[in-house]
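Why do we bother with holo predictions? Because pocket geometry can differ from the apo form. Keep that in mind while you read this record for NDP.
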Amino acid sequence: MPFDYAPAPESRSVVDIKASYGLFIGGEFTDATDGTPFKTISPSSEEVLAEVSEAGPSDVDRAVKAARQAFTGVWSRLGPAERGKYLYRIARIVQERARELAVLESLDNGKPIRESRDVDVPTAAAHFFYYAGWADKLDYAGLGSAPRPLGVAGQIIPWNFPLLMLAWKIAPALATGNTVVLKPAETTPLTALLFAEICQQADLPPGVVNIITGAGDTGQALVEHPDVDKIAFTGSTEVGKAIARTIAGTRKKVTLELGGKAANIVFDDAPIDQAVEGIVNGIFFNQGHVCCAGSRLLVQESVYDEVLDSLRRRLRTLRLGDPLDKNTDIGAINSAAQLARIRELSDIGEAEGAQRWSPPCELPEHGFWFPPTLFTGVSQSSRIAQEEIFGPVLSVLTFRTPDEAVAKANNTPYGLSAGVWTEKGSLILWMASRLRAGVVWANTFNRFDPTSPFGGYKESGFGREGGRQGLAGYVKDRRDV
Ligand code: NDP
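The structure, written out:
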């Protein structure tokens, strides 16, 4: 049984949530001209947090025009070191307002404050610091001499890491001299709107960053806008494919960060306690709402019982509940729709013959919740082994030899990430060279660093974000005019 902990709630008084928000266009908050406002709620309580504007096609057009004007008039003419100064300033303000951002993220998204405070916000600041450093060193990035910006980047992000995905998108775009129009997800717009205030506080020239809120239609209008030079998208493979179809035959560039079904592979010589922590972090971090989540556990048969016993013991100690409580390990599922999808796929898993297990766990009365769940006896063809569940659900499979582990790990339409747990360095290298995954973690999982490129193979998308490689998606090819 878990220890009893006294509640340790983070105060929400640090955040000033407005009753309603407009669109951030040309450095100002303005009313939408043709959309219907919608409400954003806290998924842990279903409390309405704020009303948010929906950007219709004419608002998208205004935002793109503001970005174009800022690009030609100011940003592309500014010296690279000057651009870097703005990015450093933004990074420092994100750090200064870290507590506010973390509380707001946990309220709007449902993720535990421990994660928003210790991972999302510091890593977002780190991205701005990192790309600030590149702004005046682009000649040395391996992109040719004097790489040129593309122009206006349309950026569409999902709800699982709202502020962090914003940083992944905006920091490299600005460092390379582009201006942006960013659309956050419908269910998690608030930290992007607070970021708009941070841009004002940093005196960023108007129009360099524009934030437009709305749902899929707003994203689609941005993708279709003729004056956008690049689309950067993170989200589902289905929408990514639709975007690729829309863009095909146009001059727009595109990068797609899509879904995943990562294998977390545990060999019999792995330090089991450490591996169990990595398995838990791999799939239960952020309620499993992680594109690179280790949602398929592959355990070598000889240590199957030992790993499963330890894993079940560890899961009994996870605390699920109020995202603002500093003791919470597992927060709320982001939306009713996502909860329905997790429930549906889990029921399918059971119907297909897998055995389902969750620790005893009381779910709060209000809000959207799903207990940490294990499926054993999963076959490779089972839908819970093939489809992205995007929730706290782990499918467990076994293997006997390294060859079998590679074959099973690669047996997925995706190719975003993988984890290998073994004491042998040579085995790690052997595995890493055979796994069709953009990122392979060795004896760890879900580690993110701005200096390290991230991206997928196959249906996980293309293009890289992070690192020097993340700059390439925002500059012209040498042969572009
Ligand atoms: P989506 O791909 O629909 O959403 C990602 C972003 O794209 C959101 O901002 C969304 O807007 C926007 N969008 C939706 N439709 C369009 C469109 N036609 N053109 C342009 N932009 C669009 O993901 P969902 O939120 O619907 O999640 C569905 C599933 O996708 C999840 O269950 C999960 O499996 C997967 N997913 C994967 C993610 C990843 O990081 N790989 C992230 C999120 C989801 P809005 O949300 O406002 O409608």
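The longest strand covers residues 393-399.
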